[in-house]
Amino acid sequence: MRRVAHVTASLLVCCSHVFGQAKVNTRAEAEYYVDAYAEHYDVPPELVRAVIAQESGWNPQAVSYKGAKGLMQLMPKTAIAYSVSDPFDISQNISGGVRYLADLIQQFHGDWRLVLAAYNCGSKWILAKGLNYQNPAVFQYVAAIRRLYIGEVAKTMELTEKKELPDISASDEQKKETKEDTK
Fold first, then answer.
1. Is CATH 1.10.530.10 correct for 46-162?
2. Model pTM score
């Protein structure tokens, strides 16, 4: 399934450049880069999708009142630190955001509460206070990402379960033959 999504997204991106038209489907392009960068940096793609949904609602042109930009709402200093020259470029933004998440996961030893809190308000505050950080907005943010992540995992599980698997069960006729052979 992922390979099909990768190929589909790649074709959409390539075709849009070849014909000089606006990109046909930015969500498909974003999904492609989410899967590619998440796999490359060993970050769960469901987590990346949850962050994007919370941060920008999948709007690649989103700008926050604090100046965060793009799908993953990178602050200017974070964008510079992760070599993102155009935060509105889908590939660059997701690449920088996923690398930032990967670094935070390493920095906070995989404690996603701290990782997400740091992604939201900066690692300086979380390094200083850890789980004693008392900002209600950050708690709400972490809880929102957790809910979105659980939803994304459920979608992934549904897609996995819906894949067509070859029918390896014996036909009714074969079952009858097997029963007769054992008599």
1. yes
2. 0.75
